[in-house]
Amino acid sequence: MPLHEIVAILKSLPVDETLRIWDRLSPEIGRQVLKAFDDHLTVMILDRLEPTRSALLLRGMDSERLDQMLERLSPAVADDLRKVLAYPPDCAGALMDSRISYFRPELTVTEALARLRAQKQRGFRLIFIVDEERRLIGMVGYSAGSGTG
Questions:
Q1: Average pLDDT of the chain?
Q2: Per-residue confidence band for 101, with pLDDT thresholds at 50, 70 and 90
Q3: Directed axis angle between helix 63-72 and helix 39-48, to 10°?
Q4: Radius of gyration over every alpha carbon of the chain, rounded to an integer in angstroms
């Protein structure tokens, strides 16, 4: 599919509905698509993807734009991305996601469920709610089979 068609399709859909598509795009195509997006849309996408996926998309981005994107992300997400980006691209640390899944309290239930459904990791029994410093502020039971908490 031509790049301009990919850009048009992804721009036309709500961000949460595109997360599975972003997971399937090659990093190179993903980088090219992000270049066509404005900063606001780019930040919305990076904020919702898993950090290892976001890091793949950010690698190769010019350092000035990378810094701008990291500054616009929430502190917790930016911190996670900085940690992943600190690894050389060809080592295991750059590819693995050892984080537990956690959510910030400002996410709506719909957004949290969309993120859970988009994750490859399955079998969650607890969802951790953390503040901006990633301190635990609560836990919610989750039944992955039913999609409800």
A1: 79
A2: low
A3: 70
A4: 15
